[in-house]
Amino acid sequence: MNEIKDSLKAIEDNYKLFLQQQFTFIGALQHTRENAHDLIRPVASISQVQSYMDHHCNNLTDRRILTMFLNICNDLSNLCNKLETIHPGNNKTNEILERCKLLLNHSNDMSTIRAKYPHDVVNHLSCNEARNHFGGVVSLIPVVLDGVKEWLSNTEKLPRRTCNVSARRAVCEKMASQDAAARAAITPKTPSVQPEAQTSVINKDCVQVQGDKHIRKKHLSDRENHCGKHKSPWKPPGRHAF
What we know:
Elements: H1 2-19, H2 22-35, H3 46-56, H4 60-86, H5 91-103, H6 127-132, H7 135-155, H8 165-186, H9 195-230
Helix pairs in contact: 1-4, 2-3, 2-4, 3-4, 4-7, 5-7
């Protein structure tokens, strides 16, 4: 939700710059309408403004301000599409979002919408301009901004249930890692024998074997000596007298 608020704030900052140039915007629309020989009908859709800029704009100032208007509308459209992935909402928030998306549709007729207080964009127009030509096009952005803010205000009152797939996957991976760590903590670990300890055991065994051999050798030597002391010396058989 913080990301949405940051995006909204960036759009509002751009709109403030655009708002300071409203007279330049109206002048650009007037010039392009004259070039298009389209002075009777009101400016009623985003696609109409796009057509004026693409085919009937003759100077950089007019092109710059018309491009700025179209970019803000595009940013708002992207933001509305993003809102759908952040929170499922309810009937009220979904209705607000659908209304904003409809207003930003390039072919939607916006000639009848009017921005109300505290917005004063319509008040800066003459009665003829506001009623017959530019009242809708200058009201589009502030009306959509109010709709997005209303969506945020109502959504923050609802239980927070994210529908973002990547966020849900991240939560699942975190839970899986925690379960693995818990299982590892429960499973008894087999004590490992260090190489130094293994060498010590081997050396100890060798010493033991050598000691056993020495003991056996000494034992055999003692037996031979013992037997030599008690054995009668051998004498050749004597001659008998007949």
